[in-house]
Specification:
Number of helices: 15
Distance between the termini: 59 Å
Strand content: 15-25%
Helix content: 40-55%
Strand order of the largest sheet: 14-15-16-13-12-18-19
Largest sheet: 7 strands, mixed
Shape: globular
Number of strands: 22
């Protein structure tokens, strides 16, 4: 795979301050396919200084011109779709169809939405005798995860650019090659030097230096709740704004009035997509007691369609594979019934985990409370809707969820769920709808108009 041996800072590829590198491993073959620079605090400082130098000019650029540059970025990403998909398959392990449709396709749509919003958002409004201005917050540190490498970059950088902010990106060390392709697209789109900067490196080094840097005005982070809490603490000491999209343990609530076969099939597919490496995956399926065993049988049948190495890709790393296997072993230890799958390696090579379904899961079990981040589904039974609601809301998380049933009934139930986004009867993903969490699932929102306002601050002038 193609890899740059430099950082993208100030509109050019610059040598890193250190000769240390990070290996990029193909999780399907377990082979090193590239190396990228391990950025240091010195590299971060250079990137933040470039972003600060570019900020006045970009903030003063008319919104219509910013929109044109974001549209050019969208087009540059679209032109690289095939290369992006192949890169995501190589460094993340996503099956080719998923890589093309979601990992390469969705970011183009999101970038296009911000090209439109940059041109139409009301950055100035009259309120009585006041004129209220929505102005860029400043320099944004975007720290992104490995599970949706390009989507998470675009979901942070595109709205920041639309708002008039400048950015420094620190991508996950497992999937840095996609970020380098994004930097190439930025360069081709003609963004002014310093408006976007890229530093590859380890989270504990480059990520922490970026979060702590006094020249950063807002930190946007997607990843684990533990790291998000640490970033929040670092930013809080400097009274610095944060946007945190963290973990999830989303409930898929199947009401008595639901089409059970459809709800179970779609629910299993949701958990298995991206090998279960989705923060909002519906990893807890809640089923009425009277239809419980029927749902378990349907779930086992649906899970069998996700063959490792074909429809189900590997997990991103040996570390992640071992973590997920540990949770599966914990589920068995705590008394859950293993319906299909298990901790054993399904293939000799690659970081694969079998599609796993647990039944007889109770709300207090570890697999019902903690984010596993793998192809593991827990099925819980409930006696009535009040119990279902208590189970659905009975975790520290509140990121996503689903409800199946008669529409009015499903909507009424969803309104009582403590979570940021709920799909009703398999509602399609909307890249313009706000995405983000309640409770320990995060602070702030991404996507659409709400995602844009995260990068704006308000000033009012009275006359």
């Amino acid at each position: 795979m193609k890899a740059h041996d430099a950082m993208y800072i100030g509109g050019e590829w610059r040598p890193a301050s250190s000769s240390d590198t990070i290996p990029v491993v193909d999780p399907a073959t377990e082979q090193v396919i590239a190396r990228v620079p391990a950025g240091t605090a010195e590299d971060v400082d250079a990137a933040v200084r470039a972003a600060r130098a570019a900020l006045p000019g970009w903030a003063a650029t008319p919104p219509a011109e910013r929109a044109a540059r974001i549209a050019a970025l969208r087009d540059a990403l679209a032109a690289r779709a095939e290369e992006i998909a192949a890169t995501v398959t190589a460094e993340l392990g996503a099956p080719p169809k998923l890589a093309a449709a979601v990992h390469a396709g969705l970011p183009v749509a999101v970038a296009g939405s911000y090209a439109e919003l940059a041109a139409t958002h009301p950055f100035v409004e009259k309120v009585g005798n006041s004129t209220v201005y929505a102005e860029p917050v400043g320099v944004v540190a975007a720290i992104t995860p490995w599970n949706y490498p390009l989507h998470q970059i675009v979901a942070k950088v595109a709205p920041a650019l639309a708002a008039g902010c400048t950015t420094v990106l620190k991508p996950a060390e497992d999937t840095p090659l996609t970020a380098q392709l994004f930097a190439e697209a930025v360069h081709e789109a003609g963004l002014p030097a310093g408006v976007f900067n890229l530093v590859t490196g380890l989270g504990a080094v480059a990520g922490q230096a970026l979060a702590e840097h006094p020249g950063v005005d807002l930190v946007s982070f997607t990843g684990s709740t533990a790291v998000g809490s640490r970033i929040g603490a670092l930013a809080g000491g400097a009274v610095k704004r944060v946007a945190l999209e963290l973990g999830g343990k989303s409930a898929n609530v199947i009401l008595s009035s639901a089409d059970l076969a459809k709800a179970v099939a779609v629910g299993v597919g949701n958990v298995m997509s991206n090998s279960g490496q989705t923060c909002s995956a519906w990893t807890r399926m809640l089923v009425p007691a009277e239809r419980y065993e029927e749902a378990v049988a349907l779930a086992a049948e649906a899970a069998a369609k996700y063959a490792p190495g074909e429809r189900l890709g590997p997990l991103v790393s040996a570390r992640q594979r071992d973590r997920v296997r540990g949770y599966i072993a914990k589920g068995v230890e705590e008394g859950a019934r293993l319906v299909t799958g298990g901790p054993e390696a399904p293939l000799e090579t690659g970081y694969y985990v079998s599609p796993t379904v647990f039944a007889d899961v109770t709300p207090e079990m570890t697999i019902a409370q903690e984010e596993i981040f793998g192809p593991v589904l827990s099925i819980l039974r409930y006696e009535d809707e009040d119990e279902a609601l208590a189970i659905a809301n009975g975790t520290d998380y509140g990121l996503g969820g689903a409800v199946w049933g008669e529409e009015d009934e499903a909507v009424a139930f969803a309104r009582r769920m403590e979570t940021g986004q709920v799909d009703i009867n398999g509602g399609r993903f909307n890249p313009r709808a706000p995405f983000g969490g309640w409770k320990r699932s995060g602070v702030g929102r991404e996507l659409g108009e709400h995602g844009l306002t995260e990068y704006l601050q308000t000033k009012s002038l009275q006359f």
